[in-house]
Write a structure and sequence with these properties.
The structure is a homodimer of 340-residue chains. Chain A contains 13 helices and 12 strands. By secondary structure, the first copy, chain A, is α/β, with parallel strands linked by helices. In chain A, helix 1 packs across helix 2, helix 7 runs parallel beside helix 8 and helix 9 packs parallel to helix 10. The structure holds a DNA duplex (30 and 30 nucleotides). Chains A, B: Pfam families: LacI, Peripla_BP_3.
Chain lengths: 340, 340
Amino acid sequence: MTKRPTIADVARRAGVSKGSVSFALNGRPGLAQSTVDKILAAADELGWRPSNRARSLSVSKAFALGLVITRDPAVLSSDPFFPAFIAGVESVLSTRGQALVLQVVTAGESEEDGYRRLAQDARVDGVFLSDLRHDDPRIGLLVELGLPAVTLNRPDGDSPFPAVTLDDRPGTVAVVEHLVGLGHTRIAQVAGPPAFVHATARSTAFTDTLAAAGLEPVAVETGDFTAAGGIEATRRLLALPEPPTAIFYANDRMAIAGLGAAQAAGLNVPDDLSIAGFDDSELAEYVHPGLTTVRADPFRFGEAAARTLNRVVDGDTDVPDVELPPAELVVRRSTAAPPL
Amino acid sequence: MTKRPTIADVARRAGVSKGSVSFALNGRPGLAQSTVDKILAAADELGWRPSNRARSLSVSKAFALGLVITRDPAVLSSDPFFPAFIAGVESVLSTRGQALVLQVVTAGESEEDGYRRLAQDARVDGVFLSDLRHDDPRIGLLVELGLPAVTLNRPDGDSPFPAVTLDDRPGTVAVVEHLVGLGHTRIAQVAGPPAFVHATARSTAFTDTLAAAGLEPVAVETGDFTAAGGIEATRRLLALPEPPTAIFYANDRMAIAGLGAAQAAGLNVPDDLSIAGFDDSELAEYVHPGLTTVRADPFRFGEAAARTLNRVVDGDTDVPDVELPPAELVVRRSTAAPPL
DNA sequence: ACTCCTCATTAAACCGGTTTAAAGAGGAGT
DNA sequence: ACTCCTCTTTAAACCGGTTTAATGAGGAGT
């Protein structure tokens, strides 16, 4: 409760000027080693930690990074990606004394408003650009705002920002090959909204791999990554005159919901219908039957993104893109040979 | 990209002093209306927004609130509470120009370290104390750190902080009465870790209601709120010589995992076994069979908590506790009459 | 002994706001 | 015409750091 010590207190105690304390703290050359020791000792005795606020003002940095997420429960709630991603980000930030500022955009406004607010308030030194879209308007906006960023996934247009990528395709290819290997020929897909880069990446990998096997999709339904969307799409697929014997979902939430829909329709999974998801969310392992899915590592993704963004923020030019180990197939009980 | 205007620019343009601009902006009395208008017009023309950093330094406030969450994927990942809660918090903060700072504590450290860091860095003006524990040591810590807080749930010890509560008991009572009404007499519970206030609240409400019906629990297993824990607990219950005909889980994740475990054991839910959860998470509605559960409103919880914490932060003394509408029962297909 | 350099240190300005104490301008009262 | 008040406005200090330009102290060179 007693007032925290300031740099002036430390200077007084060490018998030097404020400037010297600042130099010592920041390891600037030009101070005698003995003086540095004296200052650091004094700082230590007083338990002094430089004020973030003062530093922020004088060096014009926020020492914080920002993440904008949409309030839409569909995207936000129970999405297994963000929590782990955030944990990975924090694991980097905490070692650097940085903070993570969350900006949730509410239903009424556009996601861009979130970035605008962060920039306007100068709350952060850089932001993560997640759920990248095709011709993503946010890239131009951030350039305009002068806010450094890192994109999660590689944008298709020009981008001045480094990209941290995790290739979804090998996992998708593996799922399709797994299904084809089991003997399926009537395979359908529930894709994510085509506006998202990762949704179409998974989607085209799916179609291409099928084509390579001489097959084509029974149908491609578009879901919105929510459980409700998964249910809808599944019902449409099952109502087809010749329904698929296997369905590949663009994420686990839709897959688990689809699993429920199939069971509710009286189908046995996997005997009547094989189901595969994407994400390897916590529940994937524990539903019945266990969900065959594709596992990425959002924690590492967060780490890599934070490190990369910090290089940009630190003024590093030409920060290279980072490519993470690709997502890989996890086979569980929800996939089996098709019915005869 | 051009430098953003400062208060000095506005002052110059309006032909007044910096101080007057500050007064006008903050609606301080003592300025002629005409002057205020002139200043606001100048500010508007320049598109000036006061610098948060400068304001932070001079008024010693961060204009931000903090939320500490543990990195433990068990608590963090796919927990339906936090995302919605955070959205509610943000809906209040965004109207006040405040930010939400997330502090994730990594595996190696204690949750207290998270609060300590937030306080040390003076990053926030107050924090949310979630997942309250019995004799929660964080309350003393925050008092010591001089960091204002609001507790989510009412602590059992003394606390100088207002509490925002959402009574889980009515929902729990309703679940038990629902099961008893269906004819169940062999009811078991998978409780949360007893260290948590909300876990024991649900647990004792469960036992008390059973007792009021002249019954006692077949067994009470303790889970850890994770899907894996739900599986474990369920297996133990099903292995009992006289297994329960209904299981009440302290959260949906354990319940959905338990549902999977029961189905994997060859049981039909709800014919052989009724299952009820708690949270009404997104998937609860879509698994098969739909999960009977208890619904709270984490978004409102977040709103109320943010508003209450802000009152404390603003220096309001004796901020009253806030009681939210209680959680309520949602009946779906996973509960039915017990087997004969 | 005197100049010149280098190295260590400091005083002061600065970041962009808020706040306090004091000054200035009018108007009323006598 | 002079004093006294009230209402506006401002100059300057302050928040707690960083940074630049200047100063001071030794030591080497001649």
